[in-house]
Amino acid sequence: MLPTIKWEDDRVYIIDQRKLPEKKEWLICRTLQDVITAIRQMAIRGAPAIGVAAAMGLALSSRSIKTEKYGTFRRRFLEMARQMELARPTAANLRWAVEEMVKVVERMHGCGVEEIKEAIRKESQTILERDIEINTKIGRNGLALIPEGATILTHCNAGALATGGYGTALGVIRAAHEAGKNIHVMVDETRPLLQGLRLTAFELMEENIPFAVIVDSAAGYLMRKKTIDLVITGADRIASNGDTANKIGTYQVAVIAKENKIPFYVAAPLSTFDLDLKNGDLIPIEEREPAEVVSFAGHQLGPEGAVAFNPAFDVTPARYISAIITEKGVLRSPYRRSIRNLFRTQR
Ligand code: MRU
To answer: Core-most of 14, 160, 172, 270, by most CB within 10 Å?
Structure first.
């Protein structure tokens, strides 16, 4: 399994996902701005992976704060945290990870600055390692939902590359394969940046999991033909009523799945939930450069000057979601209640 991100020699190393699968290249980040740019330009992407990058980016940038005074350090660190939070707007995990790092600084009120810097670095490593454990649990929890011999449709990349490792939606698929369930995966190519074709196909191939890539618009046809037994995707943010933001195109897949009585599952860690939001209409949706739609890898596809619109995510209302698979168990509708109960037992 290709690692997504690592800390080495006081640098953050990120596998540059823009270049995959053609090239496996480490992008070396030395500053806060390097990591923010890597997130914004999607050298690293996927909600949990962005969270890990944010944590490591803050650990890195805290080292540039030259003071011995706790108050000055805290003020400068909070400024950096606020900048990091703005790197991308939709994934809840980014803000979650930033808040975890801020908590370390608050908890160590009055400690020596060097000691705090080391604690921050350790915490970022813990966030990475814990994410892999969480995904393994999600995989295990989702196993019972995957019938023997199932054909599974997935959208975008919710694999090892989108997380600290193992993956969420792809974690469940990986676990089913490891359990010998003889599954087959249909991979939406996922326009405009082709995370399905470039990244999910790459991961499935590495694991020898049988798959076929389809164009996004073929998913409805296959569902109507009963070729698909279930759909499983990741999530970028889940509101307190279960409405779920994920890669653009997820909503239409969920609606067609329901129309064809095919279960639609979401796999996500607790850090993806945003209990402050009453429903999915309040989730901020990132709009990216129109150029991503009309060109690819620097090559112009449409006519020069073609107007394009590029929302990067959409929201699937909870009524289309058959279950949400988390590291703490599988949630069912009514989600407002099941989510509230889950988080209540966590406190
Ligand atoms: O724009 P991206 O590639 O960051 O979008 C990623 C997704 O939508 C994933 O499905 C989601 O983050 C879940 S990743 C485990």
So the answer is: 172
